[in-house]
Design a protein that fits this description.
By secondary structure, this protein is an alpha/beta fold. 38% of the residues lie in helices and 17% in strands. The protein has six helices and five strands, in the order H-E-E-H-H-E-H-E-H-H-E. The longest helix has 14 residues, at 106-119. The protein starts with 5 loop residues before the first helix and ends with a strand.
Length: 136
């Protein structure tokens, strides 16, 4: 599969969409409403408080039981076929599972890919996202 070009996705989306636009600022890609000024721009950021809190509470989450993680003994390879915002995949990667995220929507794919790339520059997060691979 060929790599999707970030600039192409942004340009095509912005040309064809009357409600939202995508922009990049300080290496972070955002989705923003054009019609609703009260909606903040949206991005995926694995260093946000929500992601860090979930990572720190990982052992108490139901997904751990569902996947079958057993301490350091069993770390399954996981295919997340509905990657969404990457929350579950991030939790599983933080526990050492190799995760392949599939995301059909090009915009969500772009936001997730950007979050993974940015996390590689964070000393704490780079050891988590090294277990994550995203495919559109």
């Amino acid at each position: 599969m060929t790599e999707l070009d970030e600039n192409y996705i942004i340009q095509e989306f912005n040309k064809s969409n009357e409600d939202f636009r995508i922009f990049k600022k300080d290496n972070i890609i955002f989705l923003q409403s054009i019609k609703r000024n009260d909606w903040l721009p949206f991005s995926i950021n694995f260093s946000s408080n929500n992601f860090i809190r979930r990572k720190n509470q990982a052992n108490s989450q139901d997904i751990i039981k569902a996947i079958g993680i057993k301490g350091n003994l069993i770390k399954p390879k996981v295919l997340d076929t509905t990657a969404g915002q990457g929350r579950d995949s991030f939790i599983l990667a933080s526990l050492g599972c190799n995760i392949t995220l599939l995301e059909r929507n090009k915009v969500i794919y772009l936001l997730l890919k950007n979050a993974i790339e940015n996390a590689k520059n964070n000393d704490e997060l780079k050891n988590i996202v090294k277990y994550m691979t995203i495919i559109n």
